[in-house]
Write a structure and sequence with these properties.
The complex is a heterodimer of chains A (287) and B (266). Chain A is an all-alpha fold and 287 residues long. Chain A has twelve helices and no strands. Chain A has helices at residues 4-16, 25-50, 54-74, 78-99, 104-125, 129-138, 146-175, 177-182, 187-209, 214-228, 232-254, 263-286. In chain B, the strands form two sheets. A six-stranded mixed sheet of chain B has the order 5-6-7-3-8-9, with helices on both faces. Chain B has a three-stranded antiparallel sheet with strand order 2-1-4, with helices on one face. The chains are: A mainly alpha (287), B alpha/beta (266).
Chain lengths: 287, 266
């Protein structure tokens, strides 16, 4: 199914980037998908880095295994079961954290193990499922569909609205819960909404770079930005810029004849290179 | 000191027979206490005495039995300013002092910068706590004393009617603690808010508090610190603490007193 607005933007990309590889529809769609995912991953990544939630996003990423598994078991498309299970896992972690005295790491560890085990159990029972799993292990942005791009547009709109109203409040919640509550911030609402949106962003990022590298896609641009920024606001914009540039550069490089590498891995390698350069600048600033 | 909304109320907050239990363990046991309006009240007691729990009850952060009444406020609860013992943040986070202060008040996301209106409102507050030179410095680069003063500025930016401080002098040297307490005394007189602080430091209590609540899961004593901080009361409050004391196990505690649930200064 081809969507009108997707075709319009794909043609626009073809004209703006006159490279041979970018004249193919699947490459144009992949770039469009990345342009939508990268800023969301960068903003969410900034909050993940500052509030030490990397393990949370890792667990959500691994829920892709169980999402595919449940899709196979119920004969439903993984495109539907993966986001649903990611949401369930994200909100489940938050709910158990609120109600139990256990540490966050322990709770996430339990959920992490459960979703990976569920995925492996299905693979061992249905060996043909291993091929689908491999796709999610390494990611495959080149197969992104118009429907997925439309879903990403919806998610981006929701995410921007949420950030507009919650960006400052999330900073307060991350610093001290009691302090945030004393300032009459509805802590639980912001925590649950952030967990839900982060879960969806992570699961869409799995499509781009795979389960193994999803945390890197979130964290590395934010970590590099942190080395360069003098304020929280600037950190966010630098992170978005790094994420977007690396996503575009990674996709273009991966399509070159002399490279011929997986797009997701190349994108993450680009962000890692930027991180290394940011370390040098950080040292210069300090000296 | 009275309040225009409640001229007959000398107290800002009163606890009446408040109990808190968690997993079958009684953390607060029959708490009857009051916090005088416009003055500095200190809650003292050993670790595990329930000091922070008492504050959580005030903030409605924990379920409890009994009654907590706020007297003479326009709303059902006063505007509360809270200075926590610490902030849980990664010290490498580039959040500046001004961004930290503005995060609590500004509606526009901070990624678009701190608005001029917020700058004009917050910088004088930082000036008052001798922190204006720190406005653009990252929060993680501050010393313990500087961070405490910045948190105090953030709490004052709420224009609180009740200011709660959790161990305001913890993690900072004696001089830093003294500066912080003197600032608080000055602001309290200026703004006429009620101050409640949790502390271990009895010299701070003697120098700055006009009312003290000695707590060890029960109220041991309550009143003017110069009169009630006797060796007996201190022994009963800070004595060996091994779980919930059996009834009558602590000599001189409120439960041995004949007239009420807690011993008050006459």
């Amino acid at each position: 199914m081809e969507l009108g607005f997707v075709s319009f933007f794909c043609e626009l990309i073809g004209k703006v980037i006159p490279l041979e590889c970018m004249q193919m529809r699947f490459m144009q769609e992949a770039l469009l998908g990345l342009i939508l995912i990268a800023p969301m991953a960068a903003v969410a990544g900034t909050q993940v880095v500052n509030f030490r939630m990397a393990f949370f996003s890792d667990a959500i990423g691994h829920s892709a295994f169980a999402g595919v598994a449940f899709g196979l078991l119920c004969s439903v498309s993984p495109d539907l079961t993966m986001p649903l299970l990611a949401l369930l896992v994200g909100l489940g972690i938050m709910a158990v954290k609120q109600r139990s005295g256990l540490s966050t790491d322990t709770i996430i560890g339990v959920f992490f193990s459960a979703v990976v085990a569920a995925g492996l159990a299905v693979v061992s029972r249905y060996p043909q499922a291993a091929r689908d799993m491999q796709m999610f292990l390494y990611g495959d942005i080149l197969t992104i569909s118009d429907a997925e791009i439309a879903a990403l547009v919806g998610l981006l709109a929701l995410f921007l609205i949420f950030q507009y109203f919650s960006f400052n409040k999330l900073i307060c919640v991350g610093l001290n819960l009691q302090l945030a509550k004393a300032h009459r911030i509805h802590v639980m609402i912001h925590q649950y909404l952030f967990a839900a949106l982060l879960s969806l962003i992570v699961i869409f990022s799995v499509k781009a770079v795979g389960v193994l590298l999803v945390t890197a896609m979130l964290i590395t641009p934010a970590a590099a930005a942190r080395n360069l920024a003098s304020s929280y606001g600037k950190m966010l914009w630098i992170s978005v810029l790094i994420s977007l540039v690396c996503a575009v550069a990674g996709l273009l490089l991966s399509a070159q004849d002399w490279m011929r590498t997986a797009a997701g891995a190349t994108i993450v390698l680009c962000t890692c290179a930027v991180f290394c350069v940011s370390l040098l600048f950080r040292r210069r600033t300090r000296s | 000191m009275t309040h225009p909304l409640c001229p007959n109320c000398a107290h800002s907050v009163s606890f009446e027979h408040v109990y808190v239990e968690h997993d079958g363990i009684r953390i607060l046991d029959d708490i009857c206490a009051s916090i005088p309006r416009g003055e500095c009240t200190a809650i003292v007691g050993p670790n595990g005495a329930g000091k922070t729990t008492m504050v959580l009850v005030l903030l409605h952060e924990i379920s409890y039995r009994g009654t907590v009444t706020f007297h003479g406020y326009a709303e059902s609860r006063p505007r509360v300013g809270y200075v926590p013992q610490s902030l849980s943040f990664d010290r490498g986070m580039p959040l500046t002092v001004l961004e930290f202060m503005a995060a609590f008040h500004q509606k526009k996301p901070l990624c678009f910068g701190v608005s001029r209106a917020q700058r004009e409102r917050l910088l004088p507050l930082l000036e008052k706590t001798a922190c204006s030179h720190l406005a653009n410095r990252p929060l993680g680069a501050l010393s313990g004393g500087e961070l405490q003063r910045v948190m105090l500025s953030a709490a004052l930016s709420q224009e609180p009617e009740l200011l709660i401080l959790d161990e305001p002098a913890s993690g900072i040297d004696f001089k830093g603690g003294e500066v912080c307490c003197e600032l608080l005394d000055r602001f309290r007189k200026e703004k006429n808010f009620t101050q409640l602080m949790i502390t271990h430091d009895l010299s701070t209590v003697a120098a700055h508090a006009s009312h003290v609540i000695c707590l060890n899961r029960r109220i041991v004593a309550e009143g003017n610190p110069h009169r009630i901080l006797t060796p007996e009361v201190l022994a009963a409050t800070f004595g060996p603490h091994r779980g919930v004391p059996a009834p009558g196990a602590i000599p001189g505690t409120a439960q041995n007193l004949p007239d009420s649930c807690c011993r008050k200064e006459s």
